[in-house]
């Protein structure tokens, strides 16, 4: 039996979809990421930047190339060495001085969740892996999806792709049902990629992955 989980951030919490042998088994909603690490899943995929070697990261550059016209769904995260800045203005100043480029407001909004996940990933880099939902959906579809995930057409496309992969989400998800529909679907496809990591069939972007100073792989997996 192979148990994996896919995790996506939503508002002030995290939503997770658990698969057992590739089929839906559970959904969870937790305020902090470390609570999800307690799950016995072999692999936890998470839609949040994990690690950094270069600015911009090779993983984000390669993912944008894969998604083509939907490249706006992949943006450069703030470098780890500015995450302790007290505000966006300070982070921008530090990033420009250290890396020659600033930090967008959208990227800065990831700060709290990046800090929440980072210690867990640093402790278990082979178990906790970065996944970008749109890259995974692209892999399932064979091409970038035509409709944005928050549209009705985009929602239906993603539900159908997941069902085709054997992942059928029930109508009742308990507390996790309070998460946004797009967040649940993202968590589900992240779990699909996590299952591929567990099976040894996942592909890293870039391939091979970059390595940070501690030798941890820095890549987006699908």
Can you give a write-up of this model?
By secondary structure, this protein is an alpha/beta fold. It has one domain (about 5-75, about 110-220): Nucleotidyltransferase, domain 5. Helix content is about 40%, strand content about 20%. The protein has helices at about 35, 60-65, 90-100, 105-110, 110-125, 135-140, 150-165, 180-200, and strands at about 5-10, 15-20, 25-30, 45, 130, 205-210, 215-220. A 5-stranded mixed beta sheet has the order 3-2-1-4-5. The longest helix has 19 residues, at about 180-200.
- What fraction, in percent, of the residue positions are helical? 25-40%
Number of domains: 1
User: According to CATH, what is the topology?
Assistant: Nucleotidyltransferase, domain 5
Tell me the Rg in angstroms.
Answer: 17 Å
Top-tier CATH class: Alpha Beta
Q: Structural class, judged by helices and strands?
A: alpha/beta
- Unreliable runs, pLDDT <50, ≥5 residues? none
Terminus-to-terminus distance? 21 Å
What is the count of DSSP helices, taking H or I runs of 4+ residues? 8
- Shape from CA axes? globular
Give the averaged pLDDT, no decimals: 95
DSSP summary, beta strand count: 7
Taking strands numbered 1, 2, ... along the chain, how are they ordered across the largest sheet? 3-2-1-4-5
**Which series of helices and strands comes N to C?**
EEEHEHHHHEHHHEE
Please report which band the strand proportion falls in: under 5%, 5-15%, 15-25%, 25-35%, 35-45% or over 45%.
15-25%
